[in-house]
């Protein structure tokens, strides 16, 4: 996996640590799906993700993660030798902190969950009905457990 990480909010991790963490999580997800490509990740605050959510989804509130797939709806997949740009994942660190507290687990686990969730959306997974939700959330848990990040 090729991962480009941009951190727009102060937090305990250095830029190098956040890149290493993000690459580790997304590489595990990519290996699980047998996918190789490039992903851009932005860690932002609630105000930034709120604006993105309002602009691109017409939802006027912050959210935890947004995914912007580059190949959505594409029938043809690029040549195998090329690095495919899969898309962008935007994570609100503000919301991740609140959710980690609510669920009683670490910020690391919550950020990993959101990264995997966003990555699965980039690759066509969704949770619009019970069956697809079970499949997507099952994959998320398998990937997180492979990283040692259980609830």
UniProtKB/TrEMBL annotation:
<feature type="binding site">
    <location>
        <position position="117"/>
    </location>
    <ligand>
        <name>Zn(2+)</name>
    </ligand>
</feature>
<dbReference type="InterPro" id="IPR002036">
    <property type="entry name" value="YbeY"/>
</dbReference>
<keyword id="KW-0255">Endonuclease</keyword>
<feature type="binding site">
    <location>
        <position position="127"/>
    </location>
    <ligand>
        <name>Zn(2+)</name>
    </ligand>
</feature>
<keyword id="KW-0963">Cytoplasm</keyword>
<dbReference type="Pfam" id="PF02130">
    <property type="entry name" value="YbeY"/>
</dbReference>
<keyword id="KW-0378">Hydrolase</keyword>
<keyword id="KW-0862">Zinc</keyword>
<keyword id="KW-0690">Ribosome biogenesis</keyword>
<dbReference type="InterPro" id="IPR023091">
    <property type="entry name" value="MetalPrtase_cat_dom_sf_prd"/>
</dbReference>
<dbReference type="InterPro" id="IPR020549">
    <property type="entry name" value="YbeY_CS"/>
</dbReference>
<keyword id="KW-0540">Nuclease</keyword>
<keyword id="KW-0698">rRNA processing</keyword>
<feature type="binding site">
    <location>
        <position position="121"/>
    </location>
    <ligand>
        <name>Zn(2+)</name>
    </ligand>
</feature>
<comment type="function">
    <text>Single strand-specific metallo-endoribonuclease involved in late-stage 70S ribosome quality control and in maturation of the 3' terminus of the 16S rRNA.</text>
</comment>
<protein>
    <recommendedName>
        <fullName>Endoribonuclease YbeY</fullName>
        <ecNumber>3.1.-.-</ecNumber>
    </recommendedName>
</protein>
<comment type="similarity">
    <text>Belongs to the endoribonuclease YbeY family.</text>
</comment>
<keyword id="KW-0479">Metal-binding</keyword>
